[in-house]
TrEMBL record:
Residue ranges of domain CARD in the record: 1-76
Keywords, alphabetical: Cytoplasm, Immunity, Inflammatory response, Innate immunity
Highest taxon of the lineage: Eukaryota
SUPFAM superfamilies (UniProt xref): DEATH domain
Name this protein carries in UniProt: Uncharacterized protein LOC113053708
The keyword Cytoplasm is annotated on this UniProt entry: yes
């Protein structure tokens, strides 16, 4: 995400400078900057304000950069710049998530938010990504309780919408598996499968 912003920084400065005072209200509403930073930025001229804002966003790490790009996708935010609107459509913030991001999210997630596996003291499957890949065809054909499984996952909103938009369980499951790009997501999915498709997963586990 940082790389995308850096590479397109000159264009972002141009696009956002025209209504920078209004745009800053959206940025503050999303809590991407502090109150003191907001006050500092509002005292600047438009172009300087956007340059400083982008530097603040870049300095706050990958997750804030992703939230910033997601903000640019909102119609109310990009309506004043057709060029920005067309460009941001080409930016896939979900696919840019790396395995390190996933690991960090798993570590940083509060204990009460982590999904417990209640049937045993530890995960019965150690390499969840390998397990899902090996059994992809079987899972696509057999899993029926897709919606409650999706409910148990912390999917990116765009990924969640893409999965739910599919018309059949097979299409939903195939799309869902396509978004498993790191071990922490794979682990959450395996836990959800054991919860909602216990007999099916026990059968697969016995043959694993």
């Amino acid at each position: 995400m940082e790389e995308i912003i850096v590479e397109n920084k000159p264009k972002l400065i141009k696009w956002l400078s025209s209504d920078s005072d209004i745009f800053l209200q959206y940025v503050q509403a999303k809590k991407l900057i502090t109150t003191s930073q907001y006050t500092e930025l509002m005292e600047m001229r438009a172009k300087e304000r956007v340059i400083r804002l982008l530097d603040i966003i870049l300095g706050n790490g990958e997750n804030v950069c992703r939230k910033f790009l997601d903000l640019l996708k909102e119609d109310d935010v990009n309506e004043s710049s057709p060029e920005l609107r067309e460009w941001i459509k080409t930016v896939d913030t979900e696919d840019q998530k790396t395995e390190n991001d996933c690991k960090k999210e798993s570590v940083d997630r509060p204990i009460q938010d982590q999904k417990p596996y209640r049937d045993c003291q530890q995960m019965p499957i150690q390499d969840c990504q390998r397990f899902l890949k090996k059994n992809l065809s079987f899972l696509v054909q057999k899993v029926c309780n897709i919606d409650p499984i999706i409910d148990d996952l912390d999917l990116h909103p765009e990924s969640d919408a893409k999965v739910r938009a599919k018309s059949t369980n097979q299409e939903k499951m195939r799309t869902l598996l396509g978004h498993v790009n790191c071990e922490s997501i794979a682990k959450d999915l395996v836990i959800a499968l054991f919860k909602h498709e216990k007999h099916l997963m026990n059968e697969l586990q016995n043959n694993y």
